[in-house]
């Protein structure tokens, strides 16, 4: 199987690269520009922003969505594995929330089909926010300002976890990062990339990387086995897609991560074992493509990857409404 997959990946990448080289920056590249997000319901997005930063959705009253998906740090926490309730060590590296709306599914194993499905998971996970959906709703319902905002947004007296997760997802859908230097080059600005960055992109294509890292998010649209040419020795107990499908063929298959803003989202891989982009490129070359990049080639690919950093979301920090006497108190310890 390894002998079949490797040439297939390279063949796909060469096909992409060939058509792109013929057409130039405005042609049929395997990567497409990211478009700026347009909120169809600004009030829903604003409510979702509050809930994204709301630590009272956790048992400790300390952990929010932003704790592990920090919007000041590329939408992640820059830790090998996230810290959960009572300082529990998470089993897997937190993927970035930026551009997550482009993903084929959410979580490394794809167990959530949508951002809305994903939003409720950490709240009720005993190793993460360690709350329950019922308590989360009770907390929000005890705060008059939240009740009024939910009523205004949803035109209903009901306040359920469905509305909570819908609002969070609506906010997360706005967290896209357009106008990277690479996007500018794709759109025709030929001097947006320098010589080394262009050389790195050509290597990225001709080596086979674009077989998996393609599309607007430069990934996120497929599941692939970690360790195609040679096995990957993971430090995480996670076994990937098999946990969802139950199929042994899906063991150690993970969602291909987006490479947008990748210079900000270290450490890399589902177990966070690659501390730097240089290390990540070397590992991917050897284990996925059967290729050992020279130090010059590695540096060129890293230079290209850094051109994928786009405009970060510009937010006004939400002011959260105060608790009332009826609000359940946090239990941090």
TrEMBL record:
GO molecular function, one term: cytochrome-c peroxidase activity
Post-translational changes noted in the entry: Binds 2 heme groups per subunit.
Domain of life: Bacteria
Subcellular location: Periplasm
Ranges where the Cytochrome c domain occurs: 43-151, 195-309
Keywords tagged on the record: Electron transport, Heme, Iron, Metal-binding, Oxidoreductase, Periplasm, Peroxidase, Signal, Transport
Binding site for heme c 1: 65, 68-69, 85
GO CC field: periplasmic space
The protein's name: Cytochrome-c peroxidase
Family matches, as PANTHER family: CYTOCHROME C PEROXIDASE-RELATED
Cofactor(s) it depends on: heme
Signal peptide bounds: 1-22
